[in-house]
Specification:
alpha/beta, D-Maltodextrin-Binding Protein, domain 2, 5-stranded mixed β-sheet, 24% strand
Length: 251
C-alpha cells in the first residue's frame, strides 16, 4: 500500500513539475516580411532547439504583418523591410528598441517562359509583358514600385502601368506568380530571387531605391526578459541571412 502511495505521489509530483515548467515557458511571436522568410525560419528553429521559450514565425507583407500585430495585440519582434512601415510602427509607440540589420536591393524576377524575351530592365516595357507589382499598403516592394513609377519618364511610366496586371499583397505571391508563369516578371529583392532560383534583371540606379530593413522589439509581449532573449539571439545569428545572400548591416 505504501509502495503504491509513493508511486502515485511520484507521478503527481512529476506532473506538477512538467506543468510548472510549461507555465514558465513563453510563446514568442516574430512577425516578419516574407522576403526573408527562409533565414528567419532557420534562426527560429535554432532558437527553439536551444531555448526554453519558443518562437512562432508569422511572415507576410511588411505592412500586412504590422496590421496583424496591431489587431491581435501580439508580436514580440518585427522584421520590417521598409523604413516607411517602420516609421508608422514607431509613431504609434509600438517599438521598444530596434536595429537596422539588412540592405535590400530591388530587382525584377523573370519567369522561365519569359527568359528569352526579358534580358534587361527596358524589356519590361515591351508589348504583352505581364508584370506583378506590389500593393503599397501591404508590402515594402509596393512602395518601391511607386518610387520607380515616379522616377520613370512619362512614356515609360504609362507603359509599365499598362503591363502591371497584378498588385500582390506580399512577396510570396509574386514568387509564386513568377514560378507558375502567371506573369512574365515581378518585383523582388535580389537576395530573395537568388534564394528561390529565379532569374532577374537589375533596375537602373536612377530608378531604384535600396531598402533598409529594421529588426524591432515591440511593445505587445508582456515578458520583457523573453523578448530581449529573442531579439539578442537574432542579432547574434545574422550570419544566417548572409548565408542566404542578404547584405547584413548592424546600426
Amino acid at each position: 500500500m505504501l509502495k503504491q502511495t509513493l508511486k502515485i505521489l511520484t507521478v503527481l509530483l512529476f506532473t506538477f513539475l512538467i506543468a510548472k515548467t510549461s507555465a514558465l515557458a513563453e510563446t514568442l511571436y516574430w512577425f516578419t516580411g516574407a522576403a526573408v522568410k527562409k533565414p528567419t525560419l532557420e534562426i527560429a528553429d535554432m532558437f527553439n532547439k536551444t531555448r526554453k521559450n519558443k518562437v512562432i514565425v508569422i511572415a507576410g507583407g511588411t505592412g500586412q504583418v504590422l496590421q496583424q500585430m496591431i489587431l491581435s495585440n501580439k508580436g514580440d519582434v518585427y522584421g520590417c523591410m521598409d523604413p516607411k512601415f517602420f516609421q508608422i510602427a514607431k509613431s504609434k509607440g509600438l517599438v521598444v528598441k530596434y536595429k537596422k540589420f539588412l540592405k535590400l536591393i530591388p530587382v525584377f524576377g523573370v519567369s522561365e517562359k519569359a527568359k528569352d524575351k526579358i534580358h534587361t530592365f527596358y524589356d519590361l516595357f515591351k508589348n504583352d509583358i505581364k508584370i506583378a507589382a506590389g500593393n503599397p499598403k501591404t508590402m515594402a516592394l509596393g512602395k518601391t514600385y511607386l518610387f520607380i513609377l515616379n522616377r520613370l519618364p512619362e512614356n515609360l511610366r504609362e507603359r509599365m502601368k499598362q503591363n502591371v496586371k497584378i498588385e500582390a499583397v506580399n512577396i510570396s505571391q509574386i514568387i509564386n506568380y513568377i514560378k507558375m508563369g502567371i506573369v512574365d516578371a515581378g518585383i523582388l529583392f535580389r537576395a530573395t530571387a537568388k534564394v528561390n532560383h529565379i532569374k532577374y534583371v537589375n533596375i537602373p540606379s536612377e530608378y531604384n531605391k535600396i531598402k533598409t530593413a529594421y529588426l524591432a522589439e515591440m511593445v505587445f509581449g508582456k515578458n520583457k526578459k523573453a523578448k530581449d532573449e529573442l531579439f539578442n539571439f537574432i542579432l547574434k545569428h545574422l550570419y544566417v541571412f548572409e548565408k542566404y545572400g542578404y547584405k547584413v548591416i548592424l546600426q
